[in-house]
Amino acid sequence: MMKNNNLKELFEDVNFDFSEPAEGHRERFLEKLNSGNSSAKRKSGVRGLWAPFIGIAASLALVLFLAGNIFNSGSFKKSGDLASVSPEMKQTQEFYSTLIENELKEIQEVNSPETDAIVKDALKQMEKLDAEYEKLKKDLLKSGKDNRVIHAMINNFQQRIDLLNNVLTQIEEIKSIKNQNHENNII
């Protein structure tokens, strides 16, 4: 009996509020849920497909580089590029360079007066990342294939690709907003 009394005392002061949600709550909730799904579907397009490949390529490049360091103690070229480290790093550099080049071409193709400011800002940020990469090339020469510098160089490539992907996403959003406004003006 003592245990039952303790339980009653425990729950006596607790207020169980069973009020109903406001009118239209379910519809608003479902609308928000559906709008979240549509934006997730939009983002999982072609650019969403590159993300796993980029991560895999970076991981593979790092593993191949480490394996190359163990089995290959050949001469180190004076360029300081990733390509000068090993054949695997050359492939990695070519992969990222090609991907960045394609993204830049796509941005130039879809650029419009409404998105010009975003593109110019992105190009300034790309120049900063390029300057940072040049410093990393010098650091790579000084350090003699330091894994941290190589990882920073790969990270620099990934930052550039992320920047370009974000710009393309923003351009798509601006165009969709413009199209929606145009459709609303027609109606």
TrEMBL record:
Span-the-membrane segments of this chain are: 49-71
- Could you name the domain of life of the organism this protein comes from? Bacteria
- Coiled-coil intervals, chain numbering: 119-174
Question: What's in the keyword line of the UniProt record?
Answer: Coiled coil, Membrane, Transmembrane, Transmembrane helix
Protein name, UniProt field? DUF4179 domain-containing protein
What is the species listed in this Swiss-Prot or TrEMBL entry?
Autumnicola tepida
